[in-house]
From TrEMBL:
Segments crossing the lipid bilayer: none
Descriptive protein name: Cupin domain-containing protein
Ranges where the Cupin type-2 domain occurs: 58-122
InterPro entries xrefs: Cupin_2 (IPR013096), QDO-like (IPR053146), RmlC-like_jellyroll (IPR014710), RmlC_Cupin_sf (IPR011051)
Region Disordered: start-end pairs: 1-30
Species of origin: Nocardioides nanhaiensis
Any Pfam family the entry gives: Cupin_2
Length: 161
């Protein structure tokens, strides 16, 4: 007698597996260069993972930058510091995170981040929403009226506190 599996339902129904993995090499150019001099690399977008998650490598420019405290209603967000120091808001206070530190923020969790000096981190969203449009629009510095900006933030599940 086998015990019931505690995994989600199968999404692959073949019997032999398939060659469906893909690799993004470390030496590929960043997908986005920010006005701050930082970069964002789209390691795995929500489209590529069928909406399961989105994973990005965020590298800060020399000067400190990053969003103020905010929350998301439909996505969780995870931070893993790769290099340098990143200051993370954990919903209660700003805390300094160093390489190897990890912060998980569930849906509704207040958070923010700031970094500079070329610090880098992995940024993951689950499920994988269309964050690329959010990053790219902000990077272009598009001028928006207060009403347009509110609509943009609502479309991208971002609510400032």
């Amino acid at each position: 007698m086998s015990l019931p599996r505690s995994y989600p339902p199968d999404s692959y129904h073949g019997t032999d597996g398939e060659p469906s993995a893909w690799l993004r090499r470390d030496d590929e150019s960043p997908d986005l260069t920010l006005a701050t001099g930082g970069t964002c690399e789209y390691l795995a977008t929500g489209d590529q993972t069928q909406g399961r998650f989105g994973l990005y490598r965020w590298t800060f420019g020399e000067d400190e930058s990053g969003p103020d405290p905010h929350f998301h209603r439909s996505i969780s967000e995870q931070f893993y510091v790769l290099s340098g120091e990143v200051v993370l808001h954990d919903g209660r206070a700003w805390v300094t995170a160093r390489p190897g530190d990890f912060l998980y923020v569930p849906e509704g969790g207040i958070h923010g981040f700031r970094g500079g000096g070329g610090a880098s981190m992995l940024l993951m969203f689950a499920p994988g929403g269309p964050r690329e449009d959010y990053f790219e629009t902000l990077a272009r510095g598009e001028q928006m009226s207060a009403e347009e900006r509110a609509g943009f933030m609502d479309r991208h599940d971002t609510y400032w506190v």
